[in-house]
Every structure is written in C-alpha cells, then in structure tokens.
C-alpha cells in the first residue's frame, strides 16, 4: 500500500497502537508471562467482511512458528457476533496489533457492506465509487477497494483501482475543466483530442445550459465518438430526477443518438438509486460517493477465549472456542 | 505524519486523486489553457473545521508565486455553506489536489464536530478518545488528533497524542492482560511494579468479579498507589449504569478510599454521557470510542467562482466571490 | 353574474334547490302553516366569511315586508359556530333558498379563507390567483372573486376581476404560445409588439432553455421594455426553488437588469410560499392556483331558533337567539 | 344546463377564460401564426374521468373542419398522467378554451372519484348525494351529476337528477318543517296527506325526542304508509352510531314494523360508512354530503406535443404523441 | 376493616404472605439468627402515599419493645425512590409482613395518585368515586378510601365512606330501579317518598327518553324537591358530551329550574374531565369509576440497609440509611 | 376465603355495596314492587372469565326458589360484549349484590387475562405468580388464584395456592435472609438444613457477588442438593439479560452442574418474557409479579333485559335476552 510491509507493521505496533496494549506487553514481559492464547474476533452487526486480507498479511509477518489462524474469506457475508477470525499464538506476538487488526476490519467492512447495499438497490445497473473526496486521502483508495469488494464495478482513484485488481480507474471530466473552457462542447472536443483511445468519452452536461439542450449539442458535435453524457444536476436545480433521465433519453433517441449512454451522479444514495430503478429510468451507470464513504465502521471485538489451552474469558462472554464451521485454517 | 511531506504530496496528486482531475489536467495542458482561477470550498452542514492545517501545508508546497489563499482557522466553528477556504492561483498548481483537500477536511471535520458534541454533553468532565480501533490504522492517529481539536482531553495512540501536541497518550490496561494473569489484583500489582511513575495506576475491575467487590479488593491491595478504577461492564451485563457508578463510589468511600477515581467506558455515546451528567454520576472521566470514530464525514464542495478575474461558475451557484469577513489571508 | 337576478332567484328556488325543501313548502302550504321564524346560519370552522353579499342580494329579492336580517360583512373573520347571518321572516319567503344560501357561503368562504392563509404566508409579497382552470368554469370567476376577498392582489379571469372590482385581470403568456413560436425571445418580442401599453411585459422563461440563460437572452433582447420573467419550472425539473430564484436574480443583476422582476408560479402552496419567504428569495409576486382552488368548502348550518316569537329548536341546539354583538341589521 | 350552448361557449371563451390565453391569441394573430397543434390532456392523479361529455360538447361547437379528437369515455377509470383527451386542430380554434376544458374535468372528476370511493365503502348499500348545500349553487347540480357518474344511486336537486338521467330527485323532510309543526308525528301525517303517491314517506326522527321513541311513535301512527325513518342525530348527541341503528331496528321489529327502513345521514364520510358496513349495521341507505362535495379537484394539464406535425413540447415533457390505446376517436 | 385487627395480622402473616418469607423465618430461627435490621421502603414512581396508616397499625401490633419506625404521613406526595417508611427492629418481628406492607401501600397509593390526577383535572368541580363495582369487593371500600385520600369529595360504599371519615356515602338511583318502575318520573317521585330527608333527590334521566325531555319532565313533576339530574348516557348514544350538558342547562333554565344541578357520569376519565372543564360545561359534580379503580399499583420495594447497626445491603443499592428529612418518627 | 360465606354475603350486601342499590331496594320495597327480572352481565373487552365461581357461590346463597341462572365456566374465553352470566329472579334477591358481582369478575378476569398473555408468551416455560406484594393483601391470594386460572403454574401465597387447588405455594429465599447471613453459600446451606425435603433448594445468587461466580460457589458447596439458582439482578445492574442466563448456563455446565436449573425474576413482563423465549435463553421458570398484579380490571356491565317476562331495557341496549348458546344453566 502506501508503505512497505515491514514499515507498516512497525507503524501499527507503535505509533498507531493504543498505548495500553504496549503497557500490557511491558507488564507481562516484566512478569515473564507469555502464554499461548486463543483470541476470537467478531463484528457487532452483520455485513460484508472486508480487510481480512490486510490483517492476514500483518499476522503472517508477526506470528511465530506454531501459531494457528482461522478466518472467513474477503468479501464473505458475516452474521452479528459470528467469529470471523481466530488466532492461537503466544500473546506477545500479536497482542499489540489489536488496534490495527480491529480498525482495518472495522472501516473496510463498513464501506463494503454499504456498497453491497447500494449495488443491491441498483439491481444490475453498474455502480461506480466516486467518494474518495469524502474521506481522508490516506484511506481514500482503501475505501474504494472496499467498495469494489462490496460490489461496485469501478472506482475513481488509481490506487483504489490497483488494490481492487481493476484494469483502470473510472472518470469523466470535472465541472472545473468545463468552466475553464467556458463551453461544454469545446471542452468535450478538446477532451476527445487529448485522451488515449481507451478513455471513454463521457461529457458532463449540466454546467452552463439545460441538460437536454447540452446533451443534444454535444451529441451533434461529437457524433459516434460520444460514449455518454453525465447528469450531475445540483440540488439547487432539483438534482437529477427520473423524469430528467427519461427526457434526455427520449430526446437523444429522437435526434438519432440511441447509443449515447446516460451516467447519473450527485447525491445518489440507496433510496434514490432504488427510486430510479423502480421507475425504470434508463440509466447506464450510477456514480455514488458520500453514501458509501460515510458508512459507519462496523465495530469489531477481540476476546481471549483460552489461556494455555484452558477455557477462560471475561464476564459476559462464554469461555472456550465458539463453534463456526465456516472458518478455514489459513495459517 | 506517516510520510515525508514531499512523498505525501506526490501520493495525493497521483494514486489518491480522482482520475478525472488528472485527465482534466492533461486536456487543459494539451490546449495550453492555464488561467488563474478562484476556487471556494464550503461544507454542506455546520460543524468544527478540522484538517485545514494539513491542507495549508499541502498548498504551501504546491502553489507557485502569486497565489493567494484565505482560510478559517483549525478548530473554528463553520456554518453550512460558509466558505472556509479560498484559493486564487493557476489551476494547474492545485486542481489535481481537490480529492485530497476535500477528503482531509471531510474526515477531520466530521470527527472534530462529533467530538465537540460529546465534550459539550460531558459538561466539564474529561473525555478521552478511545476509538482508534474502530477506524483504519492509517488514519487512527488522525482521527484522534481531530478528536482533540474538537475538545477531547486525551487520546490513546502515541502518534495521535503527538499530532495533537499532548505530552503523552492515555491508557489503562486491557482485559487481555487481566485474563492472562487470571486475577485482577495480581494484574494490578504487576502493572504497578513495571510501569514508570508517570503512568496512572488505573485498574479495570469488571473482568472476573462484580465491579464493586473487585474495586474494594484492588483498593485494599494497592492503597494510595491506586489512582482509579475503570468500569467497562459489557452490554451482556447491562453496561455501566449511573447507579453502578454511584454504588462503587459509595462503597469506596465507606471503605476509606475517597481519592480513587472512577473511569467509565464501553458504548458511551452522547446520549449516555448526557444521562450520566444529568444524574450527577460521580465520574472522573469518560472513555469514548465508536461515537467519535463513526462520525460521518462532512461533505465539502470546491467551486470555481472566477476565471481570469471574471465571475464564472456553474449552474446552481452564484458567480463571483462569496462575502465572508471571517476569512484570513494565509498565503 | 352569469344570469340576471330574477332568473338566478328562480334557478336557486327550483332546479338547484334540494327537493325536500320544496316538499316541505308544499306540505306547510297544504296545512296553511306559515309562521314567522328566526333562522340562524353559522360555519363549522373559523375562517373568512365570503359570499354574504350574494346571499343578501338574493334575500332582498325574496323577502317580503316586515322581514328582518342581520349579518356580518363580506370578508370579515368568523369563529367556528359564530352566527354570521340571521333572518326573521315568514318561512315561505326564504325556506326554499336554504340550499343556495348555504352553498354560496360554503364555497366562497372556503376559497377566501385559504387565500387569506396563502397571503399571510407571503408576508407582503403579492399573490395572484391563477387557479380558474382547476374549478368548473361556471364558478371559476366566483372563486377568483373570493380569492381577492381573502387577500389576493389580482386574478386571471376578466369576470373574476370585474366581480372583485379590479381594473383588469392579470396574465403573462402560456407555454403554448412560446411553443408555437419555437423560441422564447421571438415570442417575447411579438408579445411586446401586439399588446396594449398597459399590459406588463413578463416573459415565461422555462420552455426551451435553462431559466438563467433564457432570462439573460430575453433581457438582452427586450432591455427596459421587459418588466419581469416568470419561472414555472415543471416538477420533472425540480420545480422552482429558492436557489434558482436567487441565481436568476444574481445573474440578472450582474448583467445589468436589476429592474427586471421575478414572478414565481407552479405548484406554489402555503408551505412552499412560506419557505421562499423565510429564505428571503427575491420574488416579486407569486402565482397560486390549486392551493386556493382546492380549498374545501366551509360547512354552514341553518337552524330555526324561534317560531312565532317563541324559542324553539332541534335537539342538540340551544333554543332562542344566539348573542352576537358583531351582527349588523342589514334588512 | 344553466345557459344555452352558444352563450355558454362565449362565456367560456371570454369572461371565464384566463386572460393570458386571450393575449396569446392576439399575439399569434398579430403575427399571422396559426399552426395545427396536437394537445394532450392528462390528470395528476388517478380517478374517475368526469366532465368529458361537457368538454366534447364545447369542442364540437368550437372546432373547425379537419380537427381530430380522441378521448376516454365519461365515468371511465384513468391513471395518473394518462392522456384522457387529445385534440389536433388549429390552435386558434380551441386554445382559449383551455381554462374551461381543464376546469370542467377538474371539478367533475374530483367529485366523481370521491363518490366512487364512498360507494365502494358502502359495499352495496345505496348512497344518495345530499351535498348540494356545500357548494356554490351554480355548480350544485353539476356536482350531483358527477356524484351519480361516480356511483351514487340518487341526488337531491331536480337539475342534478335531470343531468344524471334519474327519474326524480331524492328527499325526505327537513328539521325546519318538523320544528314548524312542533311534533314529528303531526309533521309526518301532514306530509303523507300532501305528497304525491310516488314520494317515499320517510320521516326524520331526531328533532324533538329520542330517536327510538320517535321512530315507534311515527310507525304506530302511520303504519304501513311509513316507508322509513331517517336518523340524522347531531354531533352534539354523538351523531348516528352503529349501535343506534341496531337499536332502532330491533325496537321497530319488536313493535311489528319490520318493513320500515332506516336511512342514515349526518357527517357520513368514507370512514364512517365503512365502519357501519363492517359492523353490519342494518342501514337501507346512506345520505352523504360534505364528503363528496368537498372532494378536491383533480389537477389536469394540457400540453402541446406537436406543432405542424413535428414533435415539440416544453422542457420536462417528452415530445410527440403519447401512446394510449384506450383512447377512441370521437371527432 | 373487614376483620378484627388481631385476625387481620394473623391473616397477613400466614395465608396472605409470600411463602419464602415464612421459609426465611424458619431458616433463621433454626440457626438462631435474629439481628436488629433497618429496612427502608420506597416507591418506584412518584405519587400520593396512601395505606401508610394501615401499615403502621399493623406494625404497632407486630413490633416489640425497642423498635423504631419513621414514616411520611397518609396522603403526602412522595418522589420516586424516596424512602417513605423505615423500620429498625428485630427481623423476626416484621420480616414476614413484607408482602402485606408493600401490598397495602402499592394498591392504595396507586388509587390515591390517580384520584389526585382526576381531581386536579376537575379544577374545583367535585369528583365522586363511583368505581367500587370495578374492583373485587374485598377491597372496594379500601379503593374508595384511597380515592378520598387522593382528593375525591365522596364515594359510593358505606364502608368506604366510614374509612374516609365522611358523614355518608353518595348515590342516586340505578337504571335498574327506573326500568322496574317503567317511567322515570314515577321512579323519581317514589324515591322522593321513601328516602330520608338528608338523601339528595338526584334523578337519572337517560333511561327511556331523550335526556333533555326527561329532565324537563322530572323537574316539572318534582319542582323544588329536585336537587339535580344525573346524565349517564351510554356510549352507544355518544356518552355525555359537553354540548348535552350545556343544552340541558339551557333548557332547565328556560323552564325555570336554575337550581337543579347536573351530575355527569359514564366513562369519565382524566382526559374527558379536562375537556369538560376547558369547555366550561356547567357540571355540578363528576362521578368517576374505572379511571380510578383501574389505576395500576405503585411498586414498592423494601431493602435491608443495616444489620446489627452496620451498613449492609444487596448489590445495586447503597448501604446505610438514606437521608430523608421529611420522615417523622412514629413508633 | 377470608370470611365465612354468610358473613361475606352480608358484607357484600351492605358495607361493600354502592349505596344507591340499597336506596333502590328501599324505594321499591316502599312501593311494593318486586318483579322477576332477567339481568345479563357482559364484559367491555375480550379476555378470560374469572371469578364466576365466587359469584355463583354468592348467588346460590342469595337467590330464592324459582330463580334461574346461566353462565360460562371459570377460565373460559369470553368476547367483548358477550353475555357471561344471566340471572332471572326477583330483583330484591340479588339487585343489591351488583357491586360485588361485577367487582369480583372485573378484578379476577383482569388478572387471569393478563396471566394468560404472559403464559402464552412463555411458550411452554413455567410461569410462577410472584406479585402478591403489589396488591392489597385482602386480595393478594385472590389475585394469585386468578393468575393460576389464567395459566400460571404456581403462586407464592399459601391461600392463593389453596384457592387454586395447588399442593403448595412456590418460593425460594428473599434477599433479606441472605443479607442477614452475610454470605450466600452460608445461607443456602442453612436453608438446606432446615427445610422439609419437599421444598426445592433454589438459591438466590445476586445479593453479594457476580451471579456467575456465586452460582458456581453455591453449586460447588451444595452439589446435587441444589435444584436451581434464581437470578433477580436489580435494574441498577441491568436486570437479568438473555446473555447472563446463557453465561450462567454455560459456566454451570462447564463446572459439571448441568442439572441445576435457572429461575429468572425481576421486572419480567410480556415483552421481556417473549424476548427471552425468542432468544432461546435456557430458563427453567419465570417469576412474574407486577405484570400480572397491575393488570387493569375488565369492566363488566349488568343490564336488565326483561321485567316480568317482557323485554325491557334502557336506551342504548337491545331489549330481550341475548342469544348465547355457550351459556349453561347452572342454577
């Protein structure tokens, strides 16, 4: 990712770890205590597990010989309270990684779960993650990776796309570029001149003129080179509506441009996506940002369930290993 | 932070930037267009502005001579739609940083705003950020920094404390350590033996026994060396309640330990903090995690308002600079 | 109105009267019964009394010598159950007019009351009645008369304006006319050529192009001859919004047309009017249609309270005349 | 109706028409423009279409040779946005009739739709329209006509009955008549003496005494000549209730009057009708007034969809004719 | 009450006591344990304390020399969790009375609290308890006593009145008596013949005829001997309404009976009483039954707070005596 | 019950009877009127009929020769308004018992109905009535009898158990006893020493220590003599939760005590019982108190329907006997 694995492990063990884990390490070391413990990790609500691969990469680097690890797979559904990861190892090898381990799964599973809900609402229409601008850029690409794990068909940052194994990031053109050109058709034609052939020619059509008029102007100018128009009508103008999409579609068809697609963005959330789908709006893909980016993390808990092979746990939990046949031995 | 400034700038310009800004750059460069533009940044809801310092550090590195920047200060209140940052510069110098700029302010302001609400609810009782485990560790310390900007008195990660300018991170001991010892008193005494003098002796008292009984046992064993007890009762046992706090306080006092403080954690949110404060529960400090960590980002928007000194903007917005006398010229 | 007074009275006594009043007349006549009765009329909810003048015109034609009538004035506020009209006369002279008397006050007071609420919400901005198309044309002008009694500044039909004592009806131009011209500027200029000087030049600007663009085109073409633009954005495009009005205002001002007014119509109801007023949208007048036209009638009841000078009434009512010092003797 | 057809057409074209249609006519005439346009009319919510016959009568008088009209039939169900009328003609022939055309369908369809809902709730029990007193008498009979189109079995005004093709209006006797007699039995017997044989002897029984006692008195006096009793208990006495109806029925039966029917009126709305039906109250017919009379109009819109054979329409609508196979060619 | 004090004490100690208190007694006796304990009693919600006098009577009989008791007074307001009774005595003397002690206060305080709310709603108009028929007759008079403690002016049972220290119970005549007479006037006159002079002549007027008609008949027949009429209209006829009361009042006054009072009963609850008071209905007194009778008991708890002079209590409570300066030493 | 039948009858006829029934008796006697009447009794809402046996016992003592009585059986379901009791006898024999008759059925049916709902929610797990302390002790055992009629498996007072025909009351040990011992294990062992063999050894485990720890200590000390543990965690500690029950079960099983049952009490209501059942908490029985004790009475009404063989009743009711084939002739 952003750092080499070794440096990342050191960062997670030290500057990014809750200090009390480090104090516990010092205390236990002072007393010469280092039992083999079994620790189980579970979420507080159901969702899509994501981040487990990053966690396993960490554990592979951190654990010593003899350690055992069981886990569910990246992108699998998980129930509330279901054990998704179990580590049996000397406590000193992984105890201090609890902050990082839980945090990776918390953020990533939150994003992937919400993305999965959006994708379900889209009922087959493609959903592209556009929300990197709504999270700190240190994790923007991670959020986009999680969105793709949750079901999105594309994302907007190069690193996000790389993490997700996609051939390329997705993107059209920003309002800023059109404003600098001062005319949408001029901007679209320049874009067409300078982009590599594999970049889709999708022109944003709400900057200066009515969306229908602009769509027809752009289509007339670019003809078959135009792959689609993007509607991103601001809320001051009522956002993109089902009716606007239908009208643009009808007017493009009447003007002889049936192959020009319609891409919708701007405040799209689960409810609005569902509304477009139910109204059979002829959308080719949705761009979704804040809805996924603002998904709350899923809280994860790590509980010791055995110490030196004996069932032991804290008040409120059942001692001994939980029974979960879905777990696979991964280390 | 996690990377040197120069590497961070490159990361933000490339792998972490929405691809369409990079495509716009290429198109404009291809046409030889690079006007001076004025761009204004504003949030979609009110809150505490946070992250602006990181943003200004970036802009100082990125902008060329002649650029002008106005901003509100880190930690200031901002209204919905209020311009908090204005940049007037050649577009090529900062256009591609829009993803990073917006994302830094979005996440940080979301966390700081929520933290401010928790701190207000606590009405003077200290609030410590304990939520690093609920966000991806690449931003855990950043979240804690924002929590302190929003009003928290301490945080749990070393890097978080360093970013926030605190002398040290805060922390007691985890359940895992007590479970390994098998007895709370034994764990407390070992902790006392091995920690530096400046580490507060606060013992977690809900692992094996009733909290009242354990508090009295620990206080009897550690006497004046005990600074406090931490209550973190799990939800399976009804979480920490106002009445439990009052009972522990009364029993410690009856047993001659009036100076032993009570630290409350576990699912504390604004509503629960308010309830404890209203019921005058004798709490010395609250540990708050998920409530702050799960704060949704605040959406920020960047709009071009002038191009080459002329008012110009997109449909739905008012051309020309917004009037905000609170802005200060910072570059 | 639509018929001479004498024909109207016959219409109300016969074809438009509930048959059972006619049967009661025949029965009483057959028995030779025709006492002087006092009948009181009251509404079932509070509002603005309207239609009383039409009712008094009828009664003047219908009642014989010795009859007495008390009433509140046209346009006065009335409370629920307040007596607004009292007739003391031989029953044969006015009993059969009960259907017409109640019906006139029911419809007119319903419309006037709702209009009064709209006007109150507009807080000083002019409101024009545009709803004749939403009621049967036999009463369209009557509805508009009632809207003006309730506080509207103008109305759209010639007969409505005449009944209300206004110098002229209000009106701009329909979408149909612009569609036939095929261009808004062409339509506006033709309108200007053919209208008398006292007709305000207000051009509808949402037919073909974005409202802002069209407003600027029209203003550029017509210059000082343009009195205003009308925004009537259809719901498929998000209706007229506060922000659209502010944007049109700002762009007209930037382009040097500060005297061109903005007239808003299209689904304006009390809630939307209030929202525009609270947001200080720079509206010059509102056109309101369905909100007033669909006002439910106010139910009126007529009760005999005395027969031949003795208190008498039906179960559920208090015998004898009600005390209402606001009533004036009008016949 | 109230006026000869020719006078009505002139009234609709002038005094009752929104002035801006007249101004559009003048402008278009001034420019020599009079294309053939196709205009489509549709409602904003579903319901029962009513008034189309009045509209077609107007159009027959107004349109010239070559005009084409398609429509749904009087009383047919219509969907929201479904085209119910299409006119293709020179605009000058019918443009100015838009106010009247829409208004007739708006009011009539609103009343018919609500009446249909009441009739459905009555589940087979007869519903009589009694609400002429709640609307302006210029449209009272029209409202009753629409109520019958919507499903009512009878109505109260002679003209309403005539428009609806009913043999006679329905009606019993008003409280006023009984109050003048001073005794219900005396009033009933006088009614019986003076009415033609085809008038049903239905006596109102709540004026002076308890409804049950009065029903038994009237039945004893009039024996087989009594067709029914009408219950119209005022709200001050709890209105007519299911239990009152059952008690009257039981007491009439006990007293040997099983053929005397029970007619219920007074504040009957859909909810109350449904409640009576569900409770199996032995009601012979319901008199319904305000519930139907206060039905809000259904908003209708007329859109030009073609000009001189070319698809053309305003922003927000789809150009070209809508596809509705339910339409029939009527002119 | 229903049993001599000594028998009542034995009944409470044995057949009516939860068996586990008796088993605790046997166990403690078997071990020779009988410490002096301090037990405190408190309610779970605020209200009017009632039953404490019955409890103190019991304790006086049960406690030995040296026992100490503190209490609030009968009819005093109490807060949630406020100690209302404290007993310091040997446990064997009163432990087994816990069921009775709590139960007496629970039921009585529930009834008195609800009665107080009804009386407050009546705002000065007298409220009579009529609800003995809605509770088991073993406690019917106790309920009525509590209702008077809570503020009622009278009650219906002789024992209730005696317990409450009232000179006599209140009552008019039941429907059954009038039904047997077959005529209300006949029943009223017979009642007048046979009742002692101190019994108020209040006649129930809704059995056979309309309430207004019957009121006038009774007043005409009994003249000055009639003290009042009682309205108890059944719900099938819409219950007593504000309007009915006003109509009866107006008609009695018109007929020259201004001194005949109006007594209202039948489903009167707090909401309905409040509605009558707000509407200024001329009611002389309200009869309230189910509203008071169905008041839920207030839960009381008894906690040991000291054993042999040492603070001791169970988990969840604070050891040692609570501080309540409102308590008075009563034994 | 608490009094011999003859004394009870006199108590019900006099001190506990609404005085107006006694006045009616005196009036009717003064007039020499004593017809045979048929009176029918019905509830105002559905439920479980209870108390009818007590009522029939009273009637058997009160009615003379020739009287006829029909009734539903104790514990049967009854519908709203369904006749559950019909008495045909001289009015003087039973009229004055109306207060007692209605009151017995009101309270008992209220309790039985609520108990039935709790038992249904428990879905097969035993429910024990523990609520005598929440009602006046004069009716505590009656309430428990009704709870058993409604479906409870046991109750806590000796008289309640006797009335219900149970072999013995149910009970464990109160907190007071354990507090006096100062240790739960000591208390449990003493209990075991002094109780008869048929008393179940169930030890309350929440007084001093954590419930799990105390359960394990008690089980270790008493071994096979321990039948169960009772959880009654106070609300200050979060009440008993599903998770606590599961944890106690798991820890007892791990420690080799699978036969020790778990008894749950403390604020158990229908909703909480249902929640435990749905979560499959391993509960052996529920102790339910306030939920049943606070059930509102079911209002009963008695109506005369015949006098001397002729149908007669008051306004609002149908004269003559109701048809209810479920009634059986019982006297």
Of all chain pairs, the largest interface belongs to: C-D, 103 and 103 residues
Main sheet of chain A: which strands, in order across? 13-12-1-5-3-14
The helical percent of chain A reads 40-55%
Mean pLDDT of chain A: 97
Quaternary assembly: homohexamer
Low-pLDDT sequence parts of chain A? none
In N-to-C order, the SSE pattern of chain A is HHEEHEEEHHEHEHHHEHEHEHEHEEE
Structural class of chain A: alpha/beta
Strand-residue proportion of chain A: 15-25%
Roughly how many Å apart are the termini of chain A? 22 Å
Shape of chain A: elongated
- CA-based gyration radius of chain A: 25 Å
The biggest sheet of chain A, with number of strands, parallel, antiparallel or mixed sense and barrel status, is: 6 strands, antiparallel
Q: Please, could you describe this protein's structure?
A:
Six copies of one chain form a homohexamer. The first copy, chain A, has 331 residues and is an alpha/beta fold. Chain A is built from 13 helices and 14 strands. Chain A has helices spanning 5-13, 19-31, 52-62, 91-94, 98-122, 140-149, 158-163, 175-181, 184-194, 211-222, 242-254, 270-278, 290-293; strands spanning 36-43, 47-48, 68-71, 77-78, 85-90, 126-129, 154-155, 202-204, 228-231, 261-264, 285-288, 300-307, 310-311, 328-329. A six-stranded antiparallel β-sheet of chain A has the order 13-12-1-5-3-14. In chain A, helix 5 (98-122) packs parallel to helix 12. In chain A, 59% of the residues are buried. The mean pLDDT of chain A is 97.
